[in-house]
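Action item from last week, closing it out:
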Amino acid sequence: MATPVTPATPTENHEMVPEHQMIPEHGMVLEHEMVLEHEMVHEHEMVGHEMVLGNEIVPGNGMVSDREMFPGNEMVRAEPQPNHVETQPGKRRKKKSIVWEHFTIETVAVGTRRAQCNQCKQSFAYSTGSKVAGTSHLKRHIAKGTCPVVLRNQQNDQLTPYSAPSKMSGYGGSNGTPKRRYRTASTPYLAFDPDRCRQEISRMIIMHDYPLHMVEHPGFLTFVQHLQPRFDMVSFNTVQGDCVATYLREKQAIQKVIERVPGRICLTLDMWSSHHTVGYVFITGQYIDSEWKIHRKILNVIMEPYPDSDTAFSHAVAACLSDWSMEGKLFSVTINQPISDAAVDNLRALLSVKNPLVLNGQLLVGNCLARTLSSIAQDAFYFLHGTVKKVRYSVKYVKTSESHEEKFIELKQQLQVPSTKTLALDDRTQWNTTYEMLLAASELKEVFSCLDTSDPDYKDAPSVEDWKQVEILCTYLKILFDTANLLTAPTIPTTNTFFHEAWKIQLELARAAASEDPSISSLTKTMQEKFDKYWKTCCLMLAIAVVMDPRFKMKLVEFSFTKIYGEEAATYVKIVEEGIHELFLEYVALPLPLTPTYAEDANGGAMKQENAQGVGASSNGAGLTDFDAYIMETTSQQSRSELDQYLEESLLPRVHEFDVVGWWKLNRMKYPTLSIMARDILSVPVSTITADSVFSTVSKEMDRYRCSLRPETVEALICAKDWLQNASVNTLHAPLKMEVPI
């Protein structure tokens, strides 16, 4: 143990590094370990009554065993320093330089030692005889990012940075007494990688819809220059290429997912307009994967020079199927707007060439439910535009002035109106806000009717007849709002959810249109006519989907059709029954897949693999074509009864949350063919738009900036954003929330 030395003279003002505490005179360490500035104090010196040992400060008069303090660490002899008492020459201490966290000393010859990098195993000179090379070159290898392994694994390997000491620090007074310093907290260091920086810039632009030209914006250039002076900003062409490269890399991964989809894929088509009069078709794919989870991904954004033509949608779908090699896997197409009969015929004719049509194409084309509801709501607002305008003015009068609102609240309290709704101005681009404004104002109509008596500035109040019309309007908007609100869920709802909603709307609007009250019939007639078109187009698909729900099956179809069609209900019920049986026969007739080497049991566990030596080579499917045909012929009656057995079994109890896809997953061994059909049907989307656009009243339009880019770049930016955002999101289907008195 070293001989105690004379304590160092403390500085006059006890200077210390900011945000750290001073060490008391008795030598105890508070919060952080005290060390001396590296360039000003030798690695092996004594400071006061304390000896610096690596990252530890040990009192000089303490008895410390080498085995306890330095297990497995190489020791070096301490050298005397000026202005300090010489320590015992035989004492060794732990190397305190930070480089020894990343280097290991190895003896290569007698008297010759080298430092080997723990990362890349590169060897550097350290000592030869009594000559020591020092550690500066070792620090540069680590801190400057020249280690090749660090560059390759910079995300996983975080190195402690080396900061050069200030030239003015180290000595506190004229006598050369060193100031006391403290080790600051280690900050993770990421080696500079210009290629990774380019990649992150492209991801940032994709994820946040930044313009590609931002790499040329002076403000952004200045920011990056100060953030990392070593980075040379890329050009517009370079970042455009990087974004496309990101898209292609992600597309390869999505392509593998699409190839593994066990069932069919449904598409949605959403036509966007532009100021150039060209259209952009957003094509989204929806499917249920092998884990029975429902997914939705944007597959293509295709520019159509003539968006109003009868061939625009068929051309876009053909391009998508070819791009993703999905010929033969398409189940249905949902379009965001009503299209002409000629356009539908073109679509069916094109797809029938390489894609087998389901039920002769009866389920191929469907309309967007969200767009239909939005269009009906807008028609209703337009029909009562004068009344809606008066209510909007009244709400604006109250909400845009504090004094007006105070008078309104005071009058409400005097009249003891029980309404708890809050008035709010509507956003004309979101029809749900107009509905909520009318609903809140309707509950406060008594206050508005008396407001002109207490506030003479309030004029043009809605009349009694106006309020009656508002109440009627809100009554029928509510059923539209409740249905549309299901589409705003963060999870993807399955098709069966919307049969109950659709038949309720059809029933209520049909009754209202036939009402003897002219104020009701005149308002709802147009609404009923528009929804009736949707109902006729999508009724069969929605009915088959709800039959696949074991809580309802055909019973809900029979019940609802009786309400809607009365005596003619049996005819429409028969159409659904025949349709679902014909569809099931199409699935029975599908070629039998090759038997897998293992199968899963009903509980999801894997069964043991068959002994390959115990079966012939024909077990792999070779030479068994005739056998497959025999199986299909002899089991057709049995396969058909699989559907009949399902329909004849008792209904499951209705619960608040029910996972219909999960139920079919659990029962796929009991219903092997029917479960495949159910998986395809339940994946059919009823809406073509995202949740945040369900209530939108404006048509989608491509902005001018994107229109200025190449169509391939536009597609890359939009698709890559969708894929990157959903890369780590496990999207599950929404549970069915339905209670039907039967």
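Closing note: The two ends are 92 Å apart (CA to CA).
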